[in-house]
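Example (one chain per record):
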Amino acid sequence: MITSTHRAPRAIGAAAAVLVGLGTVAATAVPAQAAAGFAFDQRISGADRYATAVAASTLLFPTDGTGDDVVVVNGNATVDGLTASYLAGLVSAPILYTASAGVPAATAAEITRLGAVNVWIVGGTDQVPAAQEAAWESAGLTVERYAGADRYATAALVAQADTQGSPEQVFIANGDRLADALAVGPIAWQRNYPVLLTQAGAVPQATSAALTELGTSNRVVVGGTAVVSDSTYTALGASQRLAGADRQETAAEVADDAIATENFDPQSIGLVGGADAMAADALVAAPLAGSQGVPLAFTGGDGTLGASTSAYLVSQKANYTTSGNGWVFGGPNAVSQATADAATAAVQ
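Predicted structure:
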């Protein structure tokens, strides 16, 4: 469980004192159009999803030996880690990936570079084998695992990790669709809002029990009625829905809400791949984006920028300045250079 010695309130930007080569959050007057030079030209990526996670972690903690905690998820089973952004936020940690066959060298090296003393696993032993847990413990690290009978139970356990009272807000998203839970990841990390999972037409028992235990009345459903029906919304006791016609529009609604109510930076935006196959990059984006108050936008499922995200960027271009960041998470296979260039063109 998380105790007061782990959990610490923070201001946006506090988790990473310096992000080399990246702009910082600043409150300045904005021009009538995007500042000349604003571009989606800050790509955070590696040779694969494991290396991309390390790249994001390195920017979050650029100084060696300054990261006491890491959250570890299987890089090929991100559904178990959909709610890991909340846990990582509780302990101000990055999210790193492992594989069932063994800990990738890049991940092992980053845990060493950070000087981690605590490893928080999200997922069962079929995803993060007990042998890996034992190896970390043998190396002197403290390890805690959150794993339930299914994704809903795992999410419920993670949501109840904090022992310091009820959270101000809870997000609830469909557990069979990855994008909506990922869209709120930076907010969950920054604001310590748990993310619970539901089915479209029914509330899993583990989710219902967790909501009762948390005792939070501010329950925000993420996604439209196709992924969380009106009857499920009512059964959840939800108080708000953030949703658009598709995952791109829903991410835009989440971004607007983050800026309006959570003090996120209107001058910055992060671009992530919108297809489920690219979920890994969006998950590891959450700690870095959350630390700097940067909302996420999804590309289209076909790899293009997509009409919804293009329209959103055009609508927001007056806010984007060279004081902000135009981030791209993942390599060209996740977000092609042509798509990044299209995003830049949309804000000019």
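Caption: The chain has one domain: 42-342.
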